[in-house]
Amino acid sequence: MTRPLGECVRIDGWRLQRPWQCTSADGSHILTFLYSTGRHGSGLHDQTLTVRGEDVPIGCTRGGEWHAAYYCVPESVLPADAE
Q: Which residues of the chain have pLDDT under 50?
């Protein structure tokens, strides 16, 4: 199941080490990551997906070259609610 996330915003932190956070409309899914640019590194780092309060391992890949989109996929799944 895919889940759309809202606009990503920078959250608390120091200068360039401020992480970004994207949240689903209902607040149940939160993606947090660092994005660095420049010659010492570029791309996503330290990405975390939090689903209903639990961290899920996630891997992200850049699709293409310059200004490309990132695609992130959980490396495991959480059981669905039994409701």
A: 82-83
